Fold this protein.
Amino acid sequence: MSNPMEEITIDKVVVNIGVGQAGERLTKATKVLEMLTKHTPVTTTSKKTVRDFNIRQGLTIGTKVTLRGKDAEEFLQRALYAREYKVPHYSFDKQGNAYFGVADYTDFKGMKYDPNIGIFGMDVAVVIKRKGGFRLHKRKIGAKKVPSKIRVKREEAMEFLTSKYGLVVVR
């Protein structure tokens, strides 16, 4: 690649645990995220009311952590190890982002089961972007649509994660 601004990088990794209710279970999920990421998680609230699940709008139902930079890369390496470096092809969207789940926090290297906490799975979202140009649609003055050559395509994201982390995309 001749232009260094076309280089693909990881923008952020978002780790989410959806509990469905506030209380003791949410506190335990927060503790799990803090143990795994060594960052302070924030709580997430429901956007709308779903009577079948007994959820009202504004109710605290989950917790998440956003990781950037070196922390994001290290956590992604550990999360892919927990998944045995295998992710299905449908985990990638058109914008080149990857989404996968980890069934249990004990799948991570060095984590042991704690009977006080229980079993918690989590969702991991990996946002991939190019180094330059993606700020176009966010800036205040002269905001523009991001051109297609700046966007990361699905195949490019698969190739990037395969070459950098040894990921196996299962078809």
